[in-house]
Amino acid sequence: MDIIFYHPTFDNAYWIKTLSAALPGARVREWKRGDNEPADYALVWHPPVEMLQGRNLKAVFALGAGVDSILSKLKAHPEMLAESIPLFRLEDTGMGQQMQEYAVSQVLHWFRRFDDYQALKQQARWEPLADYPREEFTIGILGAGVLGSKVTEALAPWGFPLRCWSRTRKSYPGVTSFAGKEELPQFLQGTRVLINLLPNTAETVGIINKDLISQMADNSYLMNLARGVHVVEADLLAALESGKLKGAMLDVYSKEPLPADNALWAHPRVAMTPHIAAVTRPAEAIDYIARTISQLEKGEQVTGQVDRQRGY
Ligand SMILES: NC(=O)C1=CN([C@@H]2O[C@H](COP(=O)(O)OP(=O)(O)OC[C@H]3O[C@@H](n4cnc5c(N)ncnc54)[C@H](O)[C@@H]3O)[C@@H](O)[C@H]2O)C=CC1
Ligand SMILES: O=C(O)C(=O)CO
């Protein structure tokens, strides 16, 4: 079996060595321009079209959870990957725990009013503030899939009212589930902290806009852990100015790296990280990919296949 590997920034030698060890007998090589030798599987992130085009592959594995960049490239270059070749993505493989850490630490930061105390500190003001009632600190998770469900699990022990919104109804313990466009207004009503973990699709681009924000509780918070295109940044800034939103924690942006002149950098109530909420953990990802390839070779059922029509 031949496997080709391409990632613009990973430690490719480590991946090739570890994957080879996990799949004895497989020949794993780094794909380089001009390599047209046969391959059975391809592992990719931001692949050049010529890497995949015209190959008789058994499957392609995306080296991340979101496949929006691969699917948008496919839209522009449908010849890159035949419809019949399945595309897989990473399901959790260590990203769930990272999202849990990120979400829980920031929710607690806001709940304990550390943002307010930080602002008071700037003015050397000693001023104990009233606690927020826990039962009114409702947390809503947009996108209740692999990562969204992990985040609800980590938040559950803290006792906040929890709700999620997804395409189909979920039954996660202690979480009120809302499904579909028609239930979005109900989901938003009273939501104090909105955590976004939706995939980037034609239906979700720009979903966090002024209309959506206006339906949330006053003095609410936004945490965007999914993709920058979900948020209309001008509407976010306007909501921060009007006071409708008290703060935002952003990991992803409409343009990455975020240009130095973007107003988000300077905003005192916007906290930011540079798209690191959950990164691909090589050992876990290799374990999943090796296991899935072995199962595919034996004709067994596998998980993680992307529905290209649905867009995630
Ligand atoms: N910031 C970061 O470091 C990272 C960001 N991500 C982002 O997180 C996203 C989510 O990842 P997973 O949980 O693994 O995806 P998933 O596919 O398991 O879950 C997606 C959820 O969104 C819901 N959904 C999709 N379209 C919808 C619609 N139109 N209306 C209502 N609900 C809809 C689905 O029902 C599902 O509950 C990825 O697509 C990626 O963009 C993923 C990893 C790291
Ligand atoms: O896996 C993904 O989709 C990511 O965004 C990784 O940072």
What distinguishing features does this structure have?
oxidoreductase; EC 1.1.1.79; elongated; 31% helix; D-isomer_DH_NAD-bd; NAD(P)-bd_dom_sf; 312 residues; binds 3-hydroxypyruvic acid
Bound molecules: 1,4-dihydronicotinamide adenine dinucleotide, 3-hydroxypyruvic acid
- Overall morphology: elongated
Physical arrangement of strands within the biggest beta sheet: 8-7-6-9-10-11-12
Structural class: alpha/beta
Order of helices and strands: EHEEHEHEHHEHEEHEHEHEEH
Percent range for β-strand residues: 15-25%
Helix content: 25-40%
For the CA atoms, what is the radius of gyration? 21 Å
Mean pLDDT value: 98
Q: Give the tally of β-strands.
A: 12
User: Segments where pLDDT lies below 50 for 5+ residues?
Assistant: none
So how many helices?
Answer: 10
Describe the biggest sheet? 7 strands, parallel
**Straight-line distance between termini:** 28 Å
